[in-house]
Amino acid sequence: MWENALQLFRVMVQSKSESGSTTFNAVISACEEGGEWEKALHVFSVMSKDRIESSTFTYSALFSGFEKGGRWEKVLQLFMIMAQDKVEVDAVTFGAVIRACEKVGKWDTALRLFDEMAESKVALNTIICDSSIATCEKIRDSERVLPMLMKAASDSWKNLAIAIIRRDDR
Hints:
With 170 residues, the chain is mainly alpha-helical. It contains ten helices and no strands.
C-alpha cells in the first residue's frame, strides 16, 4: 500500500499537481503503516518545503513510524518542531512520544514528558497514566507515583488519596 501511495505522490510532484495536507498526510500515514519512516520523513520535508500546513495527524503518523523504528530521538526532535510550528498537541501525540521513549528505556525523558503533559491543557488519559506509573515501577521510583496519580485523578479520587495520606500520617 505504501508503495502505491508513494508512487502516486511522485507523479503528483513531477506533474506539479497542487496537493494539500490531506494528500501528504495520506502518504505519510501509508509509509508509517508500511514501516517506512525514512520515506515518511522525506514526504514531510517536501510538505514543509512546499509550505503545506502540517497537523496533529501529520505528526502523530510520523511519531508512530519513528516509534516502531526505535527512533525515539527523531520523535523528540519532531515534537520540538511541532511546538515551534504551534501545531496543537493532544493526548495521542503525547502518548506516542512517551511510548517511544519508554520503548528504548529513556525512563526519565518519558516521565518528564508526562509531567509536561500534566502541566499543559491536554487531558491525561488512563493509558498514559498507567504507562507512566509502570515506568516508575521499572525504575523503582515509587515516590513519584502518588503525585502522578494526583495530577491524573478526578477531584473525587484526589480527595480519596488525600484522606488516605492523612490517615496514614496519624
